[in-house]
Amino acid sequence: MSETMREISGIGPQGLSDELLTATQPLVLRGLAASWPMVDAALTSDRAGLDYLRRHDQGATVGAMLGPREAGGRFFYNADFNGFNFQPVHAKLSGVLDEIEGKLALDPAPTVYVGSTTVDTCLPGFRAANDLDLGGRDALASIWIGNRTRIAAHYDVPDNVAVVAAGRRRFTLFPPEQLSNLYVGPIDFTPAGQAISLVDFAAPDLVRYPKFAEAMRHAQVAELGPGDAIFIPSMWWHHIEALAPFNVLVNYWWRQSPDYMDTPTGALMAALLTMRELPPAQRQAWQEIFRHYVFEADAETAAHIPPHARGVLSPLTADGARALRGHLLKKLNR
């Protein structure tokens, strides 16, 4: 049985504290962006919301995904798992908005979806009146525009505040430790860059995916309307359904680590290359090495080594990261 997500209200776009933005549990922020003009337009009507976007459009070309009516808004693999069930296209934003408007009365409708497009590139000036104060964080602001869609459960490395600017969305979140119960697909062949759960949340096949029932017992679910927002902590799995004929999401991504740190996904790929096929006893030995040097490392880990001789065991700096990256590239390109 899924849980209702924790909620707070009464915070505006300038009221996000460091405590909220460094949390490790998801949180619904009711009415966070209620003062946005985009939200006001969307509450007036779908066409008013579309027209608000058009006022900021300066002819941008965007990447879009087109899905057939029978897919029910779900972006997924094709039946043979050698491709996908949607068509990626590049088109003028104005044409995409017209396409969405032309399908407002259809249910189900062929899916039209603009995913993860930088707001400032796509809609210059939009953020002047529709933005959040994230306390100086260097966040990437992206916009997602479409009709009814279902985005498979996946995780993101950055922390994330996502604002529903039009329509309604249902978020289903899982803590990172539910990975094995979500039946995740390929990690190097994905619909949009991140590995996804293969479970169809609208009709879960518990014969094929029996452990998904356990995942749902740990799920947190929330439905958001215009002006509501959600904080999704780093590495939490999230499945997102856009429930209205016209939906807009604006999200902000940032990492709590310095820019010179690479994504841990690279370490996962390197581990698959170098460790997964080792004999069990050797894998166990490497597990202990990683525990000691990475996952439980502290000030005592290298304290017995003179500071000038600690090398890669020294605290990571920008220069140290460049040197370490160069060392790794030489190893990988041997």
What is the strand and helix layout of this fold?
Blueprint: E1 3-4, E2 7-9, H1 18-21, E3 27-30, H2 37-44, H3 46-56, E4 61-67, E5 87-92, H4 93-102, E6 111-118, H5 119-122, E7 140-146, E8 149-154, E9 159-166, E10 169-174, H6 212-217, E11 220-224, E12 229-232, E13 237-242, E14 247-254, H7 265-274, H8 280-295, H9 318-332
Parallel strand pairs: 1-11, 2-3
Antiparallel strand pairs: 3-12, 4-5, 4-6, 6-7, 7-14, 8-13, 9-12, 9-14, 10-11, 10-13
Polypeptide structure, described:
By secondary structure, this protein is α+β, with helices and mostly antiparallel strands. The protein has 2 domains: 3-254, Cupin (Jelly Rolls), CATH 2.60.120; 265-332, no CATH class. The chain has helices at 18-21, 37-44, 46-56, 93-102, 119-122, 212-217, 265-274, 280-295, 318-332, and strands spanning 3-4, 7-9, 27-30, 61-67, 87-92, 111-118, 140-146, 149-154, 159-166, 169-174, 220-224, 229-232, 237-242, 247-254. The strands form 2 sheets. It has a 9-stranded mixed β-sheet with strand order 2-3-12-9-14-7-6-4-5. A 5-stranded mixed β-sheet has the order 1-11-10-13-8. Helix 2 packs antiparallel against helix 3 (46-56). The chain is globular and about 65 Å long. 31% of the residues are buried. The mean pLDDT is 95.
